[in-house]
Each structure stands twice: as C-alpha cells, then as structure tokens.
Amino acid sequence: MFRRSRPFVAAGLTCLALTLAACGSGSGSGSSSSNGGKIKVGLITKTDTNPYFVKMKQGAEQAAKSEGVSLMTAAGKFDGDNSGQVTALENMVAAGVKGVLITPSDSKAIVPAIQKARAKGVLVIALDTPLEPQSAADALFATDNEKAGELIGAYAKAAMAGRQAKIATMDLAPGVSVGVQRHNGFVKGFGVSDSDPSIVCSQDTGGDQAKGQAAMETCLQKSPDINLVYAINEPAALGAYTAIKAKGREKDVMIVAIDGGCSGVQAVKDGRIAATAQQYPLKMAADGVKAVAAYGKTGTKASGYTDTGVNLITDHPQTGIDAKDTGFGLQNCWG
Description:
Pfam families: Peripla_BP_4
Number of domains: 2
Order of helices and strands: HEHEHEHEEHEHEHEHEHEHEEH
Subcellular location: Cell envelope
Domain Periplasmic binding protein: 41-296
Family: Belongs to the bacterial solute-binding protein 2 family.
CATH topology of the largest domain: Rossmann fold
Protein name: Sugar ABC transporter substrate-binding protein
Distance between the termini: 15 Å
Structural class: alpha/beta
CATH class of the largest domain: Alpha Beta
C-alpha cells in the first residue's frame, strides 16, 4: 500500500536507542521468553504520523496488551527512509526482540539488515508491503492488492450497466508493486486490458491529492468525455473529483478507489466516490504481534502469506458484487 511522507517524531528512535524497555506496553507478569524476561515485539512503520500507520500501531498495542508482551515501536523520518528503518531494526535486535513487524520503506534495500536479524533467530514479518523477494521475510501479513483492484473493477463494470466506458486511470508511479497490482486488478475486474481503447488516459499521481487533481485536469483536456475514473487511493480520487467538479461533470463521472480510510469512506457516503476497497492495517499489526507471541511461547514461526482481508464499500451495491455499506466502512476505517 502506498503511503505519503509525513513529519517525523524523533523521540521514537531515541527511545529505542537509549531507554528501550520504557517503550514497552503490556501489563502483568506477561509471557516469558527463554531468558525469563517478557517477550519483546518490535514494530517499524514507514512513518509514525500517517493515519494508516497510527491505526497499525494501535492494533499492535492492543494485541501486545492482550498477549502480555512488550511492544517497541519506531518509524522512518519519511516514506522511503531505509537507513532509519535499518537503525531501528538493529536497535531492536540488540534489545532482544523475539520478532519484528515491518512495513518496509524500501523493499530491496532493507533485505540485508533483515537477513542479519533472521540469522540471529528473530522472526521477521512484513506488514502491508512485501519485501523483494517476498521470501526475505519469514511471513507477509497484507492486503491482496490485486484482489482489491478486481473488486472495484468488477463493481465499476456492473455499475456502468452496459454503457461505453471512457476510462482514466490515476496510477501510483512506475514499477511500484502496490500500484501495479491495484491497476492490474482493476483492469482485470473490469474485463479489459491496458491496450483496450476504453482506457483513454493514464497518469501517475504518487497517491497525492494535488497531483491527482492535476492528472485529472490533463486527462479531461485530452478526453473530455471520460465517464469512469480508477484511482490508486482515495487522496488521488478526491483530487480527480475536484477537477471533475470544476468542469461541472461530477454527476456523470464515476470514481472508484482503494484504501478505506475514514475520509475516503466519508467521500463514498457523500457521493464523491462511488465505491472503495477497504483494507485493515489494525488487523495486520494485531495478527503480527500474536504471531510473534506464539513464536516466543512455542517456537513455531509464522510463514508464507496471510491475506488480512478487503471489502468493497459502497451505498449503491450491484447485483452479484459482494459489498458492505458505509456504516460498516466507517466503523472499520482508519484515519
């Protein structure tokens, strides 16, 4: 899942380096590791203020409390700060964590540090974003991004009700796996290929609202008759909506997106976005903490890929397409 850069709170890494034990959570005697102390679990996110990762941290904290383990957290200075994540990982390993949950900022560059951690017996679980290769971590807990794309593609196809589609895709950036998977899922779900003439414009947005608006303005200049927009995430979708509304076409252009953040679900409820595919960062982190706790107690390691779920959210369901309404979406959103 693509995440935008946010400000960094420096205390996170300082706490790890200097007073790691004070960063823990959990109460009571807790679960014990082989050395007699409480099992320690590390969580490293891309940033620590992005609402998606705030919700992820919340899930980890809740699970740590219920499992009676100690949670240590850190984040990069920005989305893409590999060196900050490497430092956090090394500090956590030195502090004796049994396992680390990580949303890698750089899926390739972090691999050598993860290999060193695993060689010391640390369980490493990637959350949200797979490593390259995926097998570089013991396990991956994440949304099936291609499935998310397929859901909104199938929904859009049904909602078009046989009308000729003129599609604009608001994509992420070249070569970024999450963006590629979501885009491919959308075209598959809609039943077309990238070379199909119904796709009249494709622009990269970086998942950013302002860039989404600019990209949509470009597409509308190229093809004023666009009637369907796929967006990599809800900020890009809302940027596209602003450009569409400025042309007075908000009533006849359908927008579909992926993420399920609270502002995005609200936009579905308000009618600015027709549907979104919701993912669950809280569950990713909670399940990850439970897996590390189980490893500490039994020695059994989590492995492979665990799909943490995705639901189509819309208040205008289509026959044959499974969906939840915005009431459900708002109860389970993040941000």
